[in-house]
Design brief:
It contains ten helices and 17 strands. It is of the alpha/beta class. The strands form four sheets. Strands 4-3-2-1-13-14 form a six-stranded mixed β-sheet, covered by helices on one side. The chain has a six-stranded mixed β-sheet with strand order 5-6-7-10-12-11, with no helix packed on it. A three-stranded parallel β-sheet has the order 15-16-17, with helices on one face.
Length: about 425
Amino acid sequence: MVGFKFLHLADVHLDTPFQARTKDMRMFLRQAIRQAFQRAVDLAISEKVHALLIAGDLFDNQTLSFATEKFIVEQMKRLSEAKIPVFYAPGNHDPAGVMYRRSLIEWPDNVKVFNARQPETCPVYDRDGQLVAWITGAGHESPREKDNIIKDFPRARDTGIPHIGLVHAWVTGARGEEEHDRYAPCTLEDMADKNYTYWALGHIHTRAHLSEQPLVVYPGNLMGRHHGEEGLKGVYVVEIGDTGRVKAEFYPVAPVCWTTFKVNNLSQVRTLAELQEHMYRAIAEQAERHGHADGHHETIARVLLEGPCFLYNQLRSQGTQGSIQEENIQVLEEYLSDVLGFRCVEVVLDGLTRPVVPDDYRGQPHVLGVALDILEKARTDPQVLLKLKPEVLAGCPGGDASETIAYLQGLLEGLDYELAARLLGGELT
């Protein structure tokens, strides 16, 4: 039997500025984040949760529009009509200080905002008026909260009632911590000392369970904003049973998923039709394998072309021909968007190389020919190989000569192609 059920989300970043290539795409993404938040509210209502917890960065303070403010209040009123209280701990992007936008919003009565870094504990009741949980929360008072605000949280009351911590914080050792500012820093030991049942965190945009006892969770941001925030995004619905057992289930609610696909093995592709078919098959296989073709979200794809390809000159910009290559890439992007049903596709060519056949240059009277001949001798003659070895080589085993030779021979694998590609550089046509 469920004793306390709630929805945990964080880092919505409504009205965050996007760096998309077109105005239409920027407007689409702005609306998509609103849709993600509305879906989260829909889920809370359909799941009949006892409370909705927001662990900071609901919006971006500097760019919040009147329209989005109105939208937020409307969603809170929907929750109020469903008798669902909201507990909201502001973060560094939506600080609680009186000079920031959050303080100017007229929140409905069902919304409890933790307006200070000094923690406050609130009761949560079910629809019959029974106490089902305690929630302790604290908010950032400025955009640069440097203090450990968790250290002042009270220890849980030993009453058999679940106690939840709600805060926007940077936890030492958390996956993705290096990508975020060190605001409200703390440790897992700080949280474990409080004897809470669950910690609802925000700030790190990567979904993660940092601890199982107590359960410490970053839900990640509600929707990815660029290719640095890829994958399915959403919220957690958490159920705490009468026995104290905690179950946290992830629900992907974001209508957009940023994804990177890699397409290689292009050495046999010689025509546009072959390239399109090869790309389609490679991407479709990856999309199905990773669950990006379920129809519940739109995909914004980055496609990385890698390795040697005979169509290199038709795709890589060179001098006055740059506009032609740009048109060719656009053709590929439009084709993939159409056949795969993706919202947007960006084809990236940084890993694409010219087709190089080392055998065509062996035995020739130039630097590359001589270098390839030496490489071939090193493969077959251990003495030549040992002469080429530098005195200090990382990873090379010492002592046994046979082990050293085997190690060096392993380093030669694929080196003929690499040698030819580097020496030929931009001269091959």
